[in-house]
Amino acid sequence: MLQEERYQRICALLETFKSLSTERISGELGISRETVRRDVIALEAMGRLRRVHGGVVLDSARSEAPYGERLKVRAKEKQAIARAAVKLLQPGHTLFLDAGSTTLALTEELLTLSGLTIVTNSMDIAVRMAQAGESMGQRHEVIVLGGRLAPGIAATCGETTVSEIQRHRADFALLSPVAIDARNGATSFDHGEAGVARAMAERAAHRIILADYSKIGESSRVSYCPIGSIDTLVTDGRARKLAALAEIQKAGPEVVVA
Predict the structure, then answer these.
(1) 212/237 Cα distance (integer angstroms)
(2) How far lies 193's CA from each of 4, 44, 188, 196, 205, in Å?
(3) 68-257 shares the fold of 3-58
(4) From 199's CA, which of 31, 67, 147, 161 has a CA 20 to 30 Å away?
(5) How many whole angstroms separate alpha carbon 6 and alpha carbon 20?
(6) What's 3-58's CATH class?
(7) InterPro entries given for it (predicted)?
(8) Where exactly are the structural domains of the chain?
(9) Could you tell me which residues are beta bridge partners of residue 235?
């Protein structure tokens, strides 16, 4: 793995979870503790994190990792989750999709179906559907929610977006949180993104959370869907042995392991 790629992945993990142990970085990236030590020293010098005993913490001046960096992290796990999630859907369903790297991965799998109505705040999802329509014909009706453009990600948020969500009813809300645990449910780092996801969850008959293993048992700043309101959690095989996954399952949601 190239040095810059390691830097991006460490920062993406840290901006999601705010603190990381040296052991976790080593395990996530598959690199030695010595390589972790050199990388975090370099990143601290860049002002991108702060070292503490046993690991690193997020510099409080920084917010969530850039969207482009998040797209590169755990791509195989997100693809597996997308393939499992699409099996829960049928033609004729209306879906809410929020903006995220996992829901973007889901978009590719949705192209194997037809006859869906997709309501989304994600420009990336809308553009991908439009591009597919040129080559494959229009497979789905896509409704793009208006609102204020969110900083750092091609998506809308704010009062206008939430108001538009209230005009729709969906069979499923497929949401990609920053983290999920049995105590706080699905959580996000950004208040605007959480507001959109919360509104989608409230206006859907069923709520499906898409979260890879690194998000299981973790919590971020803003809760938007309590664990008791989640119908299904779709995760990847690396989450299977996590005690936190068993705790989530005991709390009520059906768990689908891709």
Answers:
(1) 9
(2) 28, 28, 7, 5, 20
(3) no
(4) 67
(5) 14
(6) mainly alpha
(7) Carb_Metab_HTH_regulators, DeoR-like_C, DeoR_HTH, NagB/RpiA_transferase-like, Tscrpt_reg_HTH_DeoR_CS, WH-like_DNA-bd_sf, WH_DNA-bd_sf
(8) 3-58, 68-257
(9) 257
98, 126, 160, 162 from 195: Cα distances, Å: 11, 20, 11, 7
The pTM of this model reads 0.76
- Counted residue by residue, the chain has a size of 258
pLDDT range class, residue 61, cuts 50, 70, 90: very low
Distance CA 182, CA 203 (A): 22
Query: Exposed, middle or buried, 60 (CB in 10 Å: 0-12/13-18/19+)?
Result: exposed
Strands 254-257 and 232-235: parallel
What's the rounded Cα separation, in Å, for the pair 165 and 100? 17
- State the pLDDT confidence band at 71, using cuts at 50, 70 and 90: low
